[in-house]
Design goal:
The protein has one domain (11-305): Endonuclease/exonuclease/phosphatase (Deoxyribonuclease I, Chain A), CATH 3.60.10. A 7-stranded mixed sheet has the order 1-6-7-8-9-11-10. It has a 6-stranded mixed sheet with strand order 4-5-3-2-13-12. β2, α3 and β3 form a beta-alpha-beta unit. α3 (71-85) packs across α4 and α5 runs parallel beside α6. The radius of gyration is 18 Å and the shape is globular. The protein has helices at 31-39, 43-47, 71-85, 97-107, 191-205, 228-235, 241-244, and strands at 23-24, 53-59, 89-93, 111-114, 127-130, 134-143, 163-171, 177-185, 214-219, 239-240, 269-273, 278-284, 300-305. The longest helix has 15 residues, at 71-85. It is an alpha+beta fold. Helix content is 22%, strand content 25%.
């Protein structure tokens, strides 16, 4: 669902939302698609065990023509990575509208996305999802500032406006069970802005239905276990899915800047969750093609059950 650039494939679900006000999808033209998906599974399918939900957080690195590592070079690698990983939901950061449309096309007809430009530039915190597994029921945006309803607001001295995009999903393989996904990208320049942003996110978490599982994906620009931002978010009742995972793949610094990977390095890209979510496995994906990485960040993926 594009937040800018006009209507696209599913026009009924693709209207830009520039405020934090929740947008219910029931009763709209786009909601008929979700309802149809909900009614399709057979009784046998509903009785079958619910397969794990594959969740990814991925700083895409905004599209650029600058060499090396232009988007033209990175796009086929990104396409191969995402098709191989097949996540059901992807919290992305830094995506520009044409780049997001490229990813949508490369993922194929079973994926859609929700997002809007953050203001100042059109980078989005877009949330992609597999429509065969998930149907959005409600979504919204808020800005990480003293005026969170004001598009593009930046009151805490950050280098850029920062925001959160959130979606309430129905899991079509789990009898329509609902859960929330919040996706963000905290400021790279100001620790004060990051701390205030974490405080606001923690405050907003309390306003969501806590009977529903909740996932928070993002590039937080601080190191897990070593910053007040991390402490604030865990203090708000979230758990670090990396720590909670029953099994983990190789651990690397999630930002590499197209240089050699750092085993056991700093994790600044996280997936957090409410307690009760079972994390079967989590890993940083080091996929490359002929030495070309899809981004200057490694995506992080978790295979989990919502409880």
């Amino acid at each position: 669902m594009t937040g800018s650039g006009g209507p696209t494939r599913r026009a009924g679900l693709r209207t830009m939302v520039a405020a934090m006000v929740a947008v219910p999808l029931l009763g709209t033209a786009g909601a008929s698609s979700a309802a149809r998906h909900k009614s399709e599974p057979s009784r046998a399918l509903l009785r079958a065990p619910v397969p794990p939900l594959e969740v990814m957080t991925f700083n895409l690195r905004y599209a650029s023509t600058q060499e090396p590592n232009s988007w033209a070079d990175r796009r086929p690698v990104t396409r191969a990575l995402l098709r191989r990983a097949a996540p059901h939901v992807i919290g992305t950061q830094e995506g520009l509208p044409p780049q997001l449309r490229d990813i949508e096309a490369d993922l194929g007809p079973h994926y859609d996305w929700i997002g809007t430009g953050r203001g100042g530039d059109e980078e989005s915190m877009a949330v992609f999802y597999d429509t065969r597994r998930l149907a959005p029921a409600e979504y919204g945006h808020f800005w990480l500032s003293a005026t969170p309803e004001v598009r593009g607001s930046n009151t805490w001295g950050g280098g850029h406006p920062r925001m959160v995009t959130w979606v309430r999903f129905r899991d079509l393989r789990a009898r329509g069970r609902e859960f929330h996904v919040l996706n963000t990208h905290l400021d790279n320049a100001s620790q004060y802005a990051r701390v205030r942003s974490a405080d606001l996110i923690a405050e907003r978490l309390a306003g969501f239905d806590r009977s529903l599982p909740l996932l928070l994906t993002g590039d937080f620009n601080v190191v897990a276990h070593d910053n007040p931002v991390y402490d604030t978010l865990l203090g708000a009742g979230l758990v670090d899915t990396w720590d909670a995972a029953r099994a983990r793949g190789g651990a690397y610094a999630t930002f590499h800047g197209y240089k050699a990977l750092t085993p056991g390095g700093d994790r600044i890209d996280w997936i957090l969750a409410t307690p009760g979510v079972t994390v079967h496995r989590e890993w940083t994906d080091t996929f490359t093609v002929d030495g070309q990485y899809p981004s200057d960040h490694l995506p992080v993926q978790a295979s989990l059950s919502l409880g």
